[in-house]
Each structure stands twice: as C-alpha cells, then as structure tokens.
Design goal:
Blueprint lengths: L1 H20 L2 H75 L6 H11 L10 H9 L8 H28 L5 H5 E3 L12 E4 L1 H5 L2 H34 L1
Antiparallel strand pairs: 1-2
Length: 242
C-alpha cells in the first residue's frame, strides 16, 4: 500500500510539472500510462476472481459427484423395493377378490409382509441442498447441469410431500389389514419369511378397499422415486462428462 501511494504521488508530481511546463506530449504519455495501469489492475482483479470461482465450482462438482453416487444407490434400492411391494399388494387384492384362501400359504405370507412397506425419502445431497439454500445453483456454469439438478429437486419435493399421506394410510392403527395380520414381535424377523405370524382371512377380506388405496400410493411413490433416479443419473452423466 505504501509503495502504491508513493508511485501515485510521483506520477501526480510529474503530471503537475508537465502541465506547468506545457509539455503536452509527456502529459499524454502519463495519461495513457495511468489509464493502462487502471485497466490492467481491473483485468488482473477480474482474472483472480474468475479463477477463484472456477476453483470453487470444481470443488462443488466433485462433492456433487460423490454425494449423488450414494443417492443413486439408495434410489435404485428403493425403486426395486417398491416394485416388489406393488406386485405383492396387487397379488393380495387379486386373491381377496377371488374369495378363496391361497393355496400357496408361504408365498401369500411373503406377499402380506412385502405389501406394507413404505420407504422414507432417500437422503438428499448436502451440497445440492446448500446450492439451493444459498442461491448458488443458478451460478453454475453448465446450463444442462442446472436443469438436471432442478428436475431432481422437483421430483424429490413431490416424493417428500406424498410420503406423509402414504404413511398415514398404510400405518393407520385402525385399518382392517393391521387388525387381520399379526407380525412377529421380533424386529429381526420383519425381513424374513417368518415375519407374518398369522392372519385372519375373513377380516383380511374387509381390507380390499384400503389395499387398493395402498396400491395407488405405492405406485405414485414408485413413480416419484423412478423420476428422481433418472434425474440423478442424468446429473452424474453430466458431471462425469466434464
């Protein structure tokens, strides 16, 4: 700072002397030097800022790649589980409509187990959430990446809005299904073949309408999960192509 002030003072003294001496050529040269110095200073400052922003964006994209890779795994698992749940709920509805108790008892118990699952919303990328909350998403240089991240956020929000309603319906304590089906008291059994201890066929028959409602929610959630997964894979493809 001291050197800059000293240089400026020297330029001003010379400039004043040239005016007194009416040395117009020297005045022109001094003026060009001052303007050029200011211009170069601004350009250097802009270059440093652009480099800083580019470094920050590279770090952000690296974090997004890592975090969206984990999100992809969670979403792919949820999509597969929802597909199993939808098939199980549909099979139970068909069996109940027939009015006949199932011939394959173990398979029917597995369907009773799989039909009641609802998966919590997969965790969002922390970096993506920060980009949205700070408004930095709009400053990413790649327009296609911005669009893909925005699409992912829309689908994730739709899933999050639908989930509480689905849970309220599927886990309603007064539902005919929950009163008809008895689960093992050991949580370790809930993903095994012996998860369902017993069930009341006649009472289960009264759950046809609520199972139809379950199927609608499960199908919607499966769709929203699939849309999130597609958006995440688009984001990852764009990130890997950079």
């Amino acid at each position: 700072m001291l050197a800059s002030r000293y240089t400026l003072e020297m330029v001003l003294r010379r400039f004043t002397k040239h005016i007194r001496d009416q040395n117009w050529t020297a005045i022109g040269i001094e003026f060009v030097i001052v303007v050029l110095g200011v211009f170069l200073g601004i350009e250097v400052s802009n270059w440093n800022e652009a480099r800083r922003q580019a470094d920050a964006e590279r770090a952000t994209l690296a974090r997004l790649t890592e975090e969206f890779g984990a999100v992809e795994v969670d979403l792919a698992h949820a999509v597969g589980q929802y597909a199993t749940t939808i098939r199980s709920t549909g099979a139970i509805i068909v069996a109940l409509r027939s009015g006949h108790s199932p011939a394959d008892e173990p398979a029917f118990r597995q369907r009773l187990r799989d039909a009641q699952y609802i998966w919590d919303a997969p965790a969002q990328s922390v970096t993506y959430s920060e980009l949205v909350s700070t408004g930095a998403l709009s400053r990413l240089s790649d327009a296609r990446l911005r669009a893909a991240l925005t699409h992912y956020g829309h689908h994730a929000e739709r899933y999050a809005r639908k989930l509480p309603h689905a849970l309220a319906v599927v886990l309603a304590p007064d539902s005919n299904y929950l009163q008809a089906v008895s689960w093992s008291a050991d949580p370790a059994d809930w993903e095994k073949d012996n998860a369902i201890v017993e069930y009341d066929w006649n009472r289960l028959m009264a759950s046809r309408a609520e199972l139809q409602s379950w199927l609608a929610y499960q199908t919607d959630l499966h769709t929203h999960c699939s849309q999130q997964l597609e958006a995440v894979r688009t984001v990852l493809a764009l990130l890997k192509a950079r």
